[in-house]
From TrEMBL:
It comes from the Bacteria. This is Sugar transferase. GO terms for molecular function: transferase activity. It is found in: Membrane. The lineage of its organism: Bacteria, Bacillati, Actinomycetota, Actinomycetes, Mycobacteriales. Pfam families: Bac_transf, CoA_binding_3. Signal peptide: none annotated. It comes from [Mycobacterium] fortunisiensis.
Length: 505
């Protein structure tokens, strides 16, 4: 008897599960074997092996650079070869990586926690080595440790980054994913399914949705996904869908029902995740606070003033000054190219709306013909943009030099002057036109709680290819979750998008 026979008969299902727990059901062939997913096991084995290779290679390289060879040099006042010391450090390093659970499934592939554990393990090992060396006067060469520590941090971090890129590529190809049954009310499961499908790198693929009986949903499918109704027997839908993970949306079950469901899924070794129903809130703003056995998610308020704004302003001033200095030759060449190839001024100046709705004059290199604004009405019906923003893939107003400047975002460089004038930031929401701001509702106006940016989440996530809704959502997400680390990531991603010329026209 197989799974299809079991799920085809609810009575048989209840009879079977009455006498069999999850382990027995798997052994009997009624339920699919689960356990740690096979792709997770392979990935963890690969990380274990690659970490060992990296650590051994780093220690050997540090010893070679310090002493000229991996053998032959002895510890001061002893006959102990440094090869033995290196071997002990390698073993201790690998044990620390394991004890910090740096390869736990919960931290792999997303967030900074995986890197934090790798760094903590590495720093702990070298701190212990330094303390032992001082206590027992072993006089381990400082140059050896000073080489091994930064090399190890960099190499292990790079190893994890390459691992993530490999997993993300496999997930985009439909591999290395968990099959999810989304449980909840129709609107909630539809939103969850769409969000997961838009981010395949997260590793979740919705294979079914489960809604309460009588929810008014046609059970053929919800957005093309098989749908099931339930009257509390969610496990039956799990078995029919073949899912290995249940995603429970907010407000669908009461606490006792969630606890009972978790017990049922535990027997079948099926994962349970709960969506709290909030979106676009970054990890640092979320904190779990158990109160009387009830896990509460505390969401920190966005911070727009005080020290954070001062740090951002100082960062903008330093980076803008450095960028203008480095980019001066490129800007001079661009100015000459514009002046020699088309009639009109080198710079294009236009009004934009900045922080708290204050207007300012934004400066760019002119990439269009002089009368481009007057010719806009003739092209209004050919908009390739997102409705609110006018974009044209093959805009006849763009000059040959201007097309090249736009492709690599060189036309944006004069905005560094706006940054020095405190009108813009290096990273922030897109600077809007006045007529766009007039159409904003109260929600979209939150974009103006921070200065507009030369680049932002909208640029590294698709630039001109984004819809209006996605642009607004990304800008609001940036406004509420700003951090210095996030800005550095966006700047690095912007450099990549500019080099590839992706999404620009």
């Amino acid at each position: 008897m197989g799974l299809s026979d079991l799920t085809a008969s609810p009575g048989l299902y209840h009879s079977a599960t009455k006498f069999l727990d999850g382990t027995s059901a798997v052994a009997a062939g009624l339920l699919p074997a689960r356990g740690l997913r096979s792709h997770q096991r392979r990935y963890v084995r690969w990380l274990t092996f690659s970490d060992a290779v990296v650590v051994a290679a780093v220690v050997a390289l540090a010893q070679t650079l310090r002493f000229g060879s991996v053998t032959g040099e002895s510890l001061a006042y002893t006959n102990v070869d440094y090869a033995f010391v290196s071997a002990v450090i390698v073993v201790a390093w690998l044990v620390a990586l394991a004890s910090q659970r740096s390869r736990a499934a919960q931290v792999l592939d997303h967030g900074l926690e995986e890197y934090r554990r790798v760094w903590t393990a590495t720093l702990s090992v070298f701190a212990v080595v330094a303390v032992i060396s001082a206590m027992f006067q072993l006089e381990i060469a400082r140059g050896f440790l000073a080489l091994a520590l930064p090399l190890g941090l960099a190499a292990l971090t790079l190893n994890r980054m390459l691992g993530r890129r490999y997993v993300a590529a496999r997930r985009r190809a439909g591999q290395f994913v968990s099959s999810v049954l989304a449980v909840g009310h129709p609107g909630s499961v539809r939103a969850l399914a769409r969000e997961l499908s838009c981010h395949p790198q997260g590793g979740y693929r919705v294979v079914g949705v489960c809604v309460p009986e009588g929810a008014g949903v046609g059970l053929a499918a919800v957005d093309g996904i098989p749908a099931y109704q339930h009257r509390g027997d969610i496990v039956h839908a799990v078995l029919r869908s073949g899912a290995d993970t249940v995603a429970l949306t907010s407000g669908h079950l009461d606490p006792n029902e969630i606890r009972d469901l978790s017990w049922q899924l535990e027997k079948l070794d099926i994962d349970l995740v709960v969506s709290p129903g909030i979106v676009d809130v970054s990890g640092p703003r979320l904190m779990m606070r158990p109160v009387g056995g009830l896990p509460l998610i505390h969401v920190d308020k966005p911070q727009y003033e005080g020290a954070k704004r001062f740090h951002k302003r100082a960062f903008d001033l330093c980076l803008a000054t450095a960028a203008l200095t480095v980019a001066a030759p490129v800007m001079l060449a661009a100015a000459l190219a514009i002046k020699l190839t088309s009639h009109g001024p080198v710079f294009y100046k236009a009004e934009r709306i900045g922080l708290d709705g204050t207007p300012f004059t934004m400066i760019k290199f002119r990439s269009m013909v002089v009368d481009a604004d007057q010719r806009l009405a003739q092209l209004a019906g050919r908009n390739d943009g997102n409705g609110v923003l006018f974009k044209l893939r093959h805009d006849p107003r763009v000059t040959p030099v201007g097309r090249w400047l736009r492709r690599y975002s060189i036309d944006e460089l004069p905005q560094l002057i706006n940054v020095l004038r405190r009108e813009m930031s290096i990273v922030g929401p897109r600077p809007p036109l006045r007529n766009e701001v007039d159409c904003y509702d109260q929600q979209v106006r939150r974009r103006m709680l921070v200065p507009p940016g030369i680049t932002g989440l909208w640029q590294v996530s698709g630039r001109s290819d984004l819809s209006w809704e996605d642009s607004v959502r990304l800008d609001l997400s940036y406004v509420e979750n700003w951090s210095m680390v996030g800005d550095l990531v966006i700047i690095a991603s912007t450099a990549k998008a500019v080099v590839l010329g992706s999404g620009a026209y």
